[in-house]
Amino acid sequence: MEAVSCTAQWTAAARALESERSDALSADPWARTLAGGRASTCSTATPVRGPGCT
Predict the structure, then answer these.
(1) Which long-range contacts (CB under 8 A, 24 or more apart) does 6-11 make?
(2) d(CA 54, CA 35)
(3) CA–CA separation, 52 and 54 (whole Å)
(4) SS (H, E, C) 1-54
(5) pTM for this entry
(6) Which residue of 1, 11, 34, 36 has the smallest Cβ count within 10 Å?
(7) Interval 1-27: pLDDT, tens
């Protein structure tokens, strides 16, 4: 279950960062709370981009 929890926190961190953008496509007021400390870690990580992603 720890892996699922970790994935949920990383997803929430990404949602929190998106919510804080001035041109955000979505807003999740609870994302930063759910992400805990992962949001700050996620913001300094190198973004992963797949085919077709910009």
Answers:
(1) 8/34, 9/34, 9/35, 9/36, 9/38, 10/35, 10/38, 10/42
(2) 24
(3) 7
(4) CHHHHHHHHHHHHHHHHHHCCCCCCCCCCCHHHHHCCHHHHHHHCCCCCCCCCC
(5) 0.64
(6) 1
(7) 576 677 888 888 889 889 989 999 999
